[in-house]
Specification:
Strand content: under 5%
Distance between the termini: 43 Å
Number of helices: 7
Strand order of the largest sheet: 1-2
Largest sheet: 2 strands, antiparallel
Order of helices and strands: HHHEEHHHH
Number of strands: 2
Radius of gyration: 29 Å
């Protein structure tokens, strides 16, 4: 029901009263009699011509002009080229570090504790319970006692872009499930 309501709001079949985003835009129009009286003042204040066709024609020319400007400048641009019908920007070189960067970097690194990323996720979950906000796809509230460990492993795998193999561990049920569900082998060092 909520999905259908949201779809109707997006199609503007249904309007929400007192909403900026989902309200009926016609409600905010000036009354016709007031518009006739205030038209010249409003158009002058906005810098718009009386004929909307003129303004719309100017707006229609903007994308075309921008497209042509980019196209003309592309041939002499060493930072970008078109390859296989796609725009390929050149790689940027890193800017040099400012003076004193190394000393500040080392000082900050010395102040930060050495932590294990998965342990950080589990500790934050213990304090906030944020993993409880990730329900099962079926909507069921029942879950395994070690679901937080599986979710933490998935977060590590996805956020570090390392895949499931490094976080799977056959000896721990919550992490072994990552192997059996996907048919993976834990050949890398698990965490």
């Amino acid at each position: 029901m909520l999905k259908l309501l949201h779809d109707a709001l997006r199609r503007r079949d249904v309007y929400a009263v007192c909403s900026d985003k989902w309200a009926d835009p016609r409600v905010q129009l000036i009354e016709p009699l007031l518009w006739v009286r205030e038209r010249d003042t409003v158009l002058t204040a906005l810098g718009l011509p009386a004929d909307p066709a003129e303004h719309l024609a100017d707006l229609a020319d903007l994308p075309d002009g921008a497209f042509r400007q980019v196209g003309e400048g592309l041939a002499g641009n060493d930072a970008a080229r078109i390859s296989g019908g796609k725009l390929s920007p050149a790689r940027l070189e890193a800017a040099p570090h400012p003076e004193g960067f190394a000393a500040i970097h080392d000082a900050v690194a010395g102040m930060l504790p050495r932590i294990d990323y998965p342990e950080l996720i589990l500790e934050v979950n213990a304090r906030t319970g944020f993993l409880d906000a990730m329900p099962h796809i079926s909507g069921s509230q029942a879950h395994r006692d070690d679901l937080d460990l599986s979710l933490a492993a998935l977060l590590v795998a996805q956020s570090c872009n390392i895949g499931l193999t490094p976080v799977a561990k056959p000896g721990i049920a919550a992490l072994a499930a990552l192997i059996t569900k996907r048919g993976l082998a834990a050949r890398d060092q698990p965490w």
